């Protein structure tokens, strides 16, 4: 009977509805909508955590790649910079070697053309030996030791025959004593031609430097003079324009002054002479009277003559007043 057999399954309530479709045995745990929702939430949370973990992994991988690329870029930039510095250093060394070679070539050329010998007819200023210029090759040690050290006597092809001799010309010098030998004046003894050539080269280089400085100074002075001349030309043009404007204004002012003075004199003459008219109006009146004078009476002619004489007198007085 149903009343005798009681089930352990909880009875549904109006506020809590259960789904028993998956229940296989009464002893098992009853699955409800709440438990199903909890499992779904757990699954969704696990999936979300898995996605977050994957996203973090992807971000870390991207950051790792970016750092690797940045390190590679920095390394490549450092290598390029190092290569550029090495190339610049090689260029500097090459330029220095070229300059040194040019100096050596110039020194060799000068030494080839300027080798001094003793016991000949020309005396070096300030030295107690008599030397002259000959054309022969210099010693190899002279070429190699121009910048550091001096030549030793008796070495190379063009070895120096340097011997100090006292001659009669020394007695005729002022003071009667030999001057001390200095490197700048070509000392007697070993290595005379080397030191003398080096001093000559230094002197010429200094002269060339002074000449270059003088040229630069002259060029700068010419540039400044050109700028000053240009400014003066602009100022002269502006002054000419201003002077032309002033002359035009002065001419206009003088013309206005003369017109005002003439009008003032005319007004003064009209006030002083009463019915005096200007010469042009008188000529017009006279022409009108001649046209109207058909009768030709003597009285009218006399009147006309009187008017003419009076007009001439008035005109003469007006001219005299204008001249005054």
From TrEMBL:
Domain of life: Eukaryota
Region Disordered, annotated ranges: 1-106, 149-193, 258-324
Biased composition (Polar residues): 1-10
Composition-biased stretches (Acidic residues): 312-324
Comp. bias intervals (Basic and acidic residues): 37-106, 157-180, 258-271, 279-295
Protein name: Uncharacterized protein
Organism: Pisolithus tinctorius Marx 270
């Amino acid at each position: 009977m149903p009343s005798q057999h009681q089930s352990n399954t909880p009875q549904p309530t109006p506020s809590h509805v259960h789904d028993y479709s998956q229940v296989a045995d009464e002893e098992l745990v009853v699955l409800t909508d709440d438990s199903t929702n909890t499992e779904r939430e757990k699954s969704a949370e696990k999936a979300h955590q898995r996605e977050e973990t994957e996203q973090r992994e992807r971000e870390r991988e991207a950051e790792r790649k970016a750092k690797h690329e940045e390190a590679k870029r920095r390394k490549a930039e450092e290598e390029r910079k190092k290569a550029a510095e090495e190339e610049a250093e090689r260029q500097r060394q090459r330029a220095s070697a070229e300059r040194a070679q040019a100096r050596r070539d110039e020194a060799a050329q000068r030494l080839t053309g300027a080798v001094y010998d003793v016991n000949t007819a020309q005396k070096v200023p300030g030295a107690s030996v008599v030397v002259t210029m000959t054309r022969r090759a210099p010693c190899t040690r002279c070429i190699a030791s121009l910048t550091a050290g001096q030549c030793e006597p008796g070495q190379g092809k063009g070895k120096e025959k340097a011997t100090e001799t006292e001659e009669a010309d020394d007695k005729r010098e002022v003071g009667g004593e030999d001057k001390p030998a200095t490197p700048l004046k070509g000392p007697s003894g070993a290595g005379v031609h080397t030191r003398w050539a080096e001093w000559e080269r230094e002197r010429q280089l200094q002269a060339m430097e002074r000449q270059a400085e003088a040229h630069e100074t002259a060029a700068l002075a010419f540039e400044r003079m050109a700028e000053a001349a240009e400014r003066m030309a602009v100022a002269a043009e502006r002054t000419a324009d201003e002077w032309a404007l002033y002359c035009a204004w002065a001419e206009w002012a003088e013309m206005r002054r003369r017109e005002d003075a003439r009008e003032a004199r005319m007004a003064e003459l009209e006030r002083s002479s009463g019915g005096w008219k200007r010469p042009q109006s008188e000529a017009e009146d006279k022409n009108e009277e001649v046209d109207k004078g058909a009768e030709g009476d003597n009285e009218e002619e006399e009147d006309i003559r009187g008017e003419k004489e009076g007009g001439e007198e008035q005109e003469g007085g007006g001219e005299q007043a204008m001249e005054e």
